[in-house]
């Protein structure tokens, strides 16, 4: 399977989309983007977007009470990252929740090697499918053997 096909398989499996174009910033459920400290240090923020429609417990879309997003709600210990390895893990963790649109800055996508992590996820998913299939085949064989033993 081709590289892009593997990535598409993973995204389809989790019913998710990944956007890297700047025009998608602020329009996706989860965002990973760079920001700078007041003294010029570059940090990366990974958090849910507060400006989008959310769903209540019944799955009905509701309008967020803070459409301007003015409260910010960025917590240093939860949303701000210094190295890309952690971002890759956060990206995969959020992706696994499914049914999500994710904005990730193109430079961060490359630096964090997201493609590699998506390919690893593809391998895990196909290994799981193969394991489930093998277990099902073994269970079916055991059932046939049991039926045969009971017949004799």
In words, what does this structure look like?
- This protein is α/β, with parallel strands linked by helices.
- It has five helices and seven strands; from the N terminus they run H-E-E-E-E-E-H-E-H-E-H-H.
- The strands form two sheets. It has a five-stranded mixed sheet.
- Strand 4 and strand 5 form a beta hairpin.
- The radius of gyration is 21 Å and the shape is elongated.
Q: How do you describe this structure in short?
A:
The protein is an alpha/beta fold and about 150 residues long.
Low-confidence stretches at least 5 residues in length (pLDDT < 50)?
Answer: 63-72
Strand-residue proportion: 15-25%
Rounded to the nearest angstrom, the distance between the terminal CA atoms is 47 Å
Radius of gyration: 21 Å
What is the mean pLDDT?
Answer: 79
Strand order of the largest sheet: 1-7-2-3-6
Number of helices: 5
Largest sheet: 5 strands, mixed
Broad structural category: alpha/beta
**SSE topology string:** HEEEEEHEHEHH
The amount of helix comes to: 40-55%
Summary keywords:
5 helices, alpha/beta, 152 residues, 48% helix
List the helices and strands and how they pair.
Elements: H1 3-13, E1 17-19, E2 30-36, E3 42-48, E4 54-55, E5 61-62, H2 76-79, E6 80-81, H3 84-97, E7 101-104, H4 106-111, H5 114-151
Parallel strand pairs: 1-7, 2-7
Antiparallel strand pairs: 2-3, 3-6, 4-5
